């Protein structure tokens, strides 16, 4: 019952924080932690104290298995990405990280074969770090879905569509998906007599013939939007610049709130988090992405979240690695004594 009460309290805190500000990654952590506590309590409801044991068992067993399965899937996805998208750093990332995730497991096998005395310490450290990384991964994926599904798209003053690169001067499928999502929202609001202003945001890359914003605007015009209903932001090269430069354009039109950001579904949560950090009153929604591209893209976003919170993650991983070592040293000292 204690674990169930903790879970309910944590979920209550999540609900309160979610209502106050949805653009927090900590919301995802609270949601997953609350669900794990409630789930552990329900699984172990038949025996005294079994809830905590079930929660620990699920976390320590499933999280490393999740990381192992993720490594295999990333390597397979990396092969697909290389075949379809060509040899580029972003396309090698999924395969490379998949290999990196396998390294601790390979070391454990080597430890077993060599009968290292420190096997228990290494095993525990790997399990704890894997469990932590698996927890953060599930929190990221789960809350990305929750955030995207619960974002309202009605009664907005402006829709900002983020660029993602051109093929020469043409809009590729990934960017077309974002524009189509924005068009669907714009048409719905237009039907109610409240058409929001559309902003195409993206500068000109070194391999592009024109600015992304110009090609995006042309795409929207081809699909029934008037030119005077579109603002073109043609300076940005990053998501941060997308937000900052679009805010400047919209401020010139007297719009500083009720802004909707349209990006790809894998990028929606980080875009919302960045908008909050910049003080922009905007929410984000995602457009569909090709299935073969999605795992690699989600991985980059997950790594991005880890890097953005690198201090916290480094401390957590350091503590989890140091804890088994400290216990082993204390145990050895106690045995000698």
Rg computed from alpha carbons, rounded to a whole number of angstroms: 24 Å
Low-pLDDT residue intervals, each spanning 5 or more residues: none
Counting DSSP H or I runs of 4 or more residues, the number of helices is 11
Series of secondary-structure elements, N-terminal to C-terminal: HHHHHEHEHEHEHEHH
Q: How many individual domains?
A: 2
Q: Which overall shape is indicated by the principal axes computed on the Cα atoms? A: globular
Given helix and strand content, the structural type is alpha/beta
Helical proportion? 55-70%
What is the residue-averaged pLDDT? Answer: 84
Distance between the termini: 41 Å
Strand content: 5-15%
Keywords: Membrane, Transmembrane, Transmembrane helix
InterPro entries: Cell_Envelope_Assoc, DUF218, Rossmann-like_a/b/a_fold
Domain DUF218: 158-304
Protein name: YdcF family protein
